[in-house]
Design goal:
The protein is α+β, with helices and mostly antiparallel strands and 141 residues long. It has one domain. Helix content is 16%, strand content 42%. It is built from 2 helices and 9 strands, in the order H-H-E-E-E-E-E-E-E-E-E. A 9-stranded antiparallel sheet has the order 2-1-9-8-7-6-5-4-3. A hairpin with a 4-residue loop joins strand 6 and strand 7.
Length: 141
């Protein structure tokens, strides 16, 4: 009976460890310079500043990034303005995948990094979503 219990325990540990993929948030998200979206450690957007556009409405907390055809995009709507590292906000995140649109609503995201040029690094630990968005000052364009 002991042996059977040991086998069950080993099987349960193997099954639970397979579904919990670990990766380094610093490597996957915080070292990025370009606008991006990663999900479970995988790039979801191939941002190219020559063929992609970015826009935002800071008052509404909306950030959008899309290619010129508008077929590929991601968008983030924040519950409040991300202004401080460590700040927790609620956000809706949507993006295109090869054959579908992925959407998460009301997820907790943490401001992990801010840059002087307006880039914002957000991370959702629960959904393993990392985004780099940018505030664009249309008054200085």
């Amino acid at each position: 009976m002991r042996r059977f219990g040991f086998i069950i325990c080993v099987l349960l540990m193997a099954m639970s460890s397979g579904s919990c993929v670990k990766y380094d948030i610093d490597e996957i998200l915080l070292e990025r310079e370009d606008l991006s979206l990663t999900w479970k450690g995988e790039d979801q957007v191939d941002y190219d500043p020559l063929t992609w556009q970015a826009g935002c409405n800071v008052k509404k907390g909306e950030y959008r990034v899309h290619d010129d055809s508008m077929a590929n995009y991601f968008a983030v709507k924040c519950s409040e303005h991300p202004v401080m590292e460590g700040q927790d906000i609620t956000a809706d995140v949507v993006w295109t995948m090869k054959t579908t649109i992925k959407r998460y609503e009301g997820i907790k995201m943490t401001v992990r990094k801010l840059s002087p040029d307006g880039r914002i690094w957000l991370w959702s630990r629960s959904q393993q979503i990392g985004v780099v968005i940018k505030e664009i000052d249309h008054n200085n364009s």
